[in-house]
Amino acid sequence: MVETHQNKPPYGMIAILFIGAFVAILNETLLNVALPSIMNEFEVSATSVQWLTNGYMLINGILIPASAFFIQRFKNKSLFITAMTLFTIGTLLASLAPIFEVLLVARLIQAAGSAVMMPLLMNVMLTAFPIEKRGSAMGIFGLVMVVAPALGPTLSGWIVEHYGWRMLFNIVLPLSVLTLVLAFFKLKNVTPQRDIKLDFLSLVLSSFAFGGLLYGFSSAGEKGWDSPVVYGTIIVGAVSLVVLILRQLRMDDPMLEFRIFKYPMFALSSAISIVISIAMFSGMILIPIYIQTIRGISPFESGLLMLPGALVMGLMSPITGKLFDKYGARVMAIIGLVIVVVTNYYFTQLDMDTTYASIMILFSIRSFGMSMTMMPVMTNGLNQLPMKDNPHGTALNNTLQQVSGAIGSALLITVMNNRTQSKAEELAADAMANVEPATAAGLSEQAMAEMQTQIMNQAMLNGINFSFLVSTFIIVIALVLAFFIKRVVPAKETVEVKAETV
After folding, report:
1. Which structural domain range is residue 366 located in?
2. Which residue range or ranges hold the Major facilitator superfamily (MFS) profile domain (predicted)?
3. What is the mean pLDDT of the chain?
4. Do both 184 and 219 map to the same domain?
């Protein structure tokens, strides 16, 4: 049947979904700053405590691809309530966790609930709003997508410092309970359902594919590319992904519809989003390393430095949504990416005296450019899909962003480490060449240690600047692709779906 939308979008219902998604995304980054405190309390290693974030990410990577099936098969009200119930149970369990193992299980339960929330929210908006108003709707959605993860580290740094890590869950718990109660009484069913069955083998392949790729690339920065764990999981993930794609292409009702890449603007928007996600991590990872390791500024102040940029993106999201509805994605993406390329290049010029205010302003301008690019590009791609394929489009978009983010993190950390190591050797050789043998022999241990620290800081600074240069070239690729964006209309439906509105 032909795609339809409600005359009046269900704003109250979407607000409930927004709160749930905001709490879930905020929770994803909230715990990072608290990991050292948890290590001390439960007396666990850094490797063990890292599973609180790695495990969360992996569960998301496994369940987000499956969200396309859940959204098509089940009513959006029951799906959201189930997800929010899991998230609430996990939050309560984490708050009361007597041992580390209980805390880890609680985080995995939270992740199982949060994984479906973002794809579900996007599908409800795509169903509820006509194409000419989707930009404004998705722009408001950008508030959740951008502000929540940026608030996490800053907020948690302050809370952990004053109240302890359990307070992080105690703050989230009443919000999740409130969302659950509102959802029970106020949510209605607006997304179409289809009577489809889950292919268990597809789910297993998807878990190995995206779970393997996420874990492999996320571990590369810490363990190194020569670690069997890293290249082993990446190989398993890549092989599983190929088998998964081949299986889905042979199925009439696939769990994940890869055939939607035949729509050129969706394929182009996915490519641009992947490139941007890879490069975006240059700011999220390299700036905190520079601020904390080289300049010795506290983690809390490091998070505070990024907060104005997040607020700029949040405030701009509704505005860029309206501009997208009026002018389309192409002009928005080109202007935004030019801003990102220029500001990213300025980050290649960091030195030991770059002021805190300068970095904050540059990062905020860079965030302004990102806000003009990310949501308009994604929305334009989704707009070309017929309604029946929206769940697959949102599932693939969210999955690709997670995987490309992990790849970007691994790539830029590797570039930084390799450049730092080679520059340190070069600086050390130059330093020893300029010191007389008699003077070198007379240097105290403290003087040698200070010289080594100075060399390493200078080498790491060079490594960070070079990584920013690499990420700048990556963003240029996205800028070139942006010139090929065209405004689209949704493809016509080819299969009949049923939509409930009660």
Report:
1. 259-502
2. 13-490
3. 82
4. no
CA distance 280 to 273: 10
Query: How many whole angstroms separate alpha carbon 482 and alpha carbon 272?
Result: 7
| Rounded Cα gap, residues 461 and 445, in angstroms | 24
**102 and 93 Cβ atoms separated by less than 8 Å:** yes
Contact 443, 432 (CB under 8 A): no
* E-state strands within 186-247: 192-193
From CA 385, how far away is CA 257, in angstroms rounded? Answer: 12
CA 273 to centroid of chain Cα atoms: 11
Question: Do residues 52 and 102 lie in contact, with contact meaning Cβ atoms separated by under 8 Å?
Answer: no
Tokens, residue 69: 């099936």
Chain centroid to CA 499? 31
Q: What angle (nearest 5°) sits at the alpha carbon of residue 321, between those of residues 316 and 324?
A: 120
> Residues 287, 205: one domain?
no
pTM: 0.80
210, 79: one domain: no
Estimate the crossing angle of helix 329-346 against helix 299-327, to 10 degrees: 150
Tens-digit pLDDT profile for residues 414-443: 888 888 888 888 887 877 666 555 555 555
Domain check: are 249 and 264 in the same one?
Answer: no
> What backbone torsions phi and psi does residue 499 show, to the nearest 5 degrees?
-125, 130
Angle at 401 between CA 398 and CA 403, to 5 degrees: 110
Both 138 and 210 in a single domain?
A: no
